[in-house]
Amino acid sequence: MSKWWVFLLLGALVAREDPFEPPKSIEHIGLGDEVPDYFRYVDVNLPSTARVLTKVTLTYENLDASTHTQSMDINQRIDWHYPIKVTQQAAILGQEDKIFRIADRDFWIHDNKLYLRTSDKIQRSFVLINPYRIIIDTDRDAKDFRQKIEVNEKYVHNISIETHDRFYRYFIVLDGRYQYKIEQKNNYLVIGLR
């Protein structure tokens, strides 16, 4: 009899309040400090002999780990000079946000947060004025970058990257003065402005 009481007590401790509520680990993850590492895009370059795109085929994995293929007939003329782009960036950003490409990294703004896709570790960050800009130094690898892109969106005028001997230096020129906080999240730097 005492064994049954032990099993009942253990069962009560393990049971959830609402068994029909999905576990927290599979709920929808919105864009916040943690950014899901969803598929972003792929560019497919076709040879100079390509003239008509006849079909596109996608192979995907289901929840049960089985794989399926879906094909779509296209049958339209193409210009081989331009790559065919497959994208799902809206899964990360939503339809209204834009991704900017700096070196081989992605940069975007959502609400009052700036996101820079890089796994390089932060060495230091500081602010310079006139123009007001956040400087971020990160570890570097063998690649050499020197690029500046115009953003001209709320919060950010432009962003640039330079390669130094032991680090990459990012310059994020802002549209005004802000307090900021930088966090490293998975493969992203998240810069909160207020």
Explain what this protein looks like in three dimensions.
By secondary structure, the chain is mainly beta. The protein has two domains: 60 residues, no CATH class; 98 residues, Immunoglobulin-like. It contains two helices and 14 strands, in the order αββββαββββββββββ. The strands form four sheets. The protein has a five-stranded antiparallel sheet, with no helix packed on it. The protein has a five-stranded antiparallel sheet with strand order 8-9-12-11-10, with no helix packed on it. A hairpin with a 5-residue loop joins β2 and β3. The longest helix is centred in the N-terminal third of the chain and has 13 residues. The protein is elongated and about 55 Å long. About 9% of the residues have low confidence.
Arrangement of strands in the largest sheet: 5-6-7-14-13
CATH architecture field of the largest domain: Sandwich
Mean pLDDT: 80
**Ends apart, CA distance between termini:** 62 Å
Q: Assess the beta-strand content as a share of residues.
A: over 45%
